[in-house]
Amino acid sequence: MDIFVQLEETYLQTLNGVAFINRSPTIKKNHSSMYKQILFLSLLILTLPLLAQEKNGFAPQVTLGETTLVSSGKDLPFWMSSNQNGTIVLHNPTYQLFQAEIKRGLERDSLKKWGYTYGGNLVYGLAGGSDFQPNQYWLGVRYRSLILKAGAEADPVIYAGLSSTNGNMDHSGNARPVPGIRLSTRGYLPFLFAKKWFSFRFLYEEGFLHFDKQAISNAHLHHKNLYLRNRLSPTLFLTVGIEHYVFWGGNSPVYGQEPGWNQYFRYVLAMKGGKGASLYDRMFTAGNGLGIYNLELKKDWPDYEASFYWNHPFENPSQTSLVNIKDGLFGIHLGKKKKESFFTDFVYEYMQTQYRMRNTPPRGDDDYFNHWEYTSGFTYFQRMMGSPLFIPTIGPDGISRGFESNMMWMHHLGLGGTLGGGFSWKTLLTLSRNYGRPYQLYPKPPYECSGLLECSYATLKLPFAVKAGLAADYGSRFEHRYGGYLGIDFHF
Question: Which of 32-41, 153-162, 397-406 comes out lowest in average pLDDT?
């Protein structure tokens, strides 16, 4: 019961405005800077409703939110801080999280040739110290079925928010969105002469890692994907796709300036490095390339839908031949179309990465999400951009050193439903075991079990939504800990 008392007291202190005072010596030393950030955030919050006034009748959504989180340990439980788009960055047993968001989506009228979208999300956190971040910010223009966007925007949540990876083990929503420039289709488009049976979508994006402290400073992150969808029957769809990422360019403290735009197509096409590249890049591929194959089989019924999905990772051209076929994420989602019953959604996932390509000359063992030169690994602002089960090691300088363990298996269960009267619930339960990395195996691979239970209330009759939850970790990877949170979001 202690945690409920602590949660209630901390939450009431926050509402009364006294939670900002005397929290720690760190905050005392930074009062001036903190108050400036709070003032800036407050002024912006006051202007958001004014921005919401649009003459065309398609007004943006404005959300102001506060969440209080507490833990019995030194840090928050796993599922209280993971897959939150990198909004929780500080390590402390108590956390206040303030968010101000504005979002305008594209018009649903497909007859208009032009459209536009914009949005932003500002985050302020208090947890022994303070953190202020522009988490998301973007502006986009649509012409017919093509969309051009600039900025940083999170991906939409799929599978009712019950997946451990949002259905993509390389891009889960665990880290802060990477800013960049993106060209994409608006959903799936008919494919030429076979438009009755085939459709496709694509994305081409150049991201900039300049705001993050990484081992290679001022690096770029290239990302592209292509998905093809086959309508096998009126209610059965098969989707196959490929995602490709490349860390390229930047300045290495060891090897100096990496080749830049003059070798751009070598990076994008996974070619060998050219003049000025390292010996390793000239022998194999330029930059740090990785990606996944993605497959989904979806079946529709009048009241239900079911999806089976599979992600298969690759780290170099040799793996595109499916040599490491056993590795990947396997998942199934079952959902009711009408969200009006106690059980509406079910997700089960199994992930394993122990069978990476082994002892294959001259590369040796593959080391998922790590790289010999881009040693910060597949991270952004100290968080894994893919599955949150892969946790980077952070050095005393605040720079990621990559992943100490990338060989693991995981079972994950997600359930969700409604309770009636505007109440809904969801629960996550994850069991995993980590084995280390190639040539650095753990002598005793640790088990870990992490769980979460959340209940929320939202109705169209009221301009706010409330959520509360409990979470816990038990095992030998993290400390034994449990926690809870209480939050409210106001919508305008």
Answer: 32-41
Where does residue 172 fall: left (phi above 0), alpha (psi -120 to 50 degrees), or beta otherwise? alpha
The C-alpha atoms of residue 171 and residue 184 are separated, in whole angstroms, by 17
pLDDT in tens, 212-226: 999 999 999 999 999
Dmax over Cα atoms in the chain, in whole Å? 68
C-beta separation of 403 from 442 below 8 A: no
3-state secondary structure 208-256: ECCCCCCCCECCEEEEEEEEEEEEEECCEEEEEEEEEEEEECCEECCCE
- If one counts every other C-beta atom within 10 angstroms of the C-beta of residue 173, the result is 23
Q: Which residues pair with 207 in a beta bridge?
A: 180, 221
Taking the C-alpha atoms of residue 152 and residue 172, their distance in angstroms, rounded to an integer, is 15
**In angstroms, rounded to a whole number, what is the distance separating the alpha carbons of residues 92 and 98?**
16
> How do the residues of the chain divide into helix, strand and coil, expressed in percent and rounded to 5?
15, 45, 40
- How many residues in the chain? 492
Count of Cβ atoms closer than 10 Å to residue 65 Cβ: 19
Question: Which candidate, 484, 471, 454, 479, places its Cα nearest to that of 3?
Answer: 484
- For the segment 320-374, what is each residue's pLDDT rounded down to a tens digit? 566 778 899 999 999 999 999 999 999 999 999 988 655 444 444 578 999 989 9
Q: Phi, psi (5° rounding) for residue 102?
A: -130, 140
CA–CA separation, 411 vs 351, rounded Å?
Answer: 7
